[in-house]
């Protein structure tokens, strides 16, 4: 712990065997986050194109709000079904 307080000694780098599980886990997490980001972007784009019809007001009207709610709900349900489908076979 002395390296935290200015000592010139640094902890030894991880060996290839020690780093491998860490690197694999980090890559897996990065893929999950990237997939989540893509799904969110796709849902936002799809629901925006389907539901937002007017830019006259600052806020969504009642019809647009309902449309966005249904669109997000259906998209979420579809993604869950697609993800769990291989597990159910």
Automatic annotation (TrEMBL):
It is found in: Mitochondrion inner membrane. GO terms for biological process: protein transport. The twin CX3C motif contains 4 conserved Cys residues that form 2 disulfide bonds in the mitochondrial intermembrane space. Belongs to the small Tim family. InterPro entries: Tim10-like (IPR004217), Tim10-like_dom_sf (IPR035427). Residues 1-20 are annotated as: Disordered. The keyword Protein transport applies. GO terms for cellular component: mitochondrial inner membrane. This is Mitochondrial import inner membrane translocase subunit. Its main location: mitochondrion. Keywords: Chaperone, Disulfide bond, Membrane, Mitochondrion, Mitochondrion inner membrane, Protein transport, Translocation, Transport. It comes from the Eukaryota. It is a peripheral membrane protein.
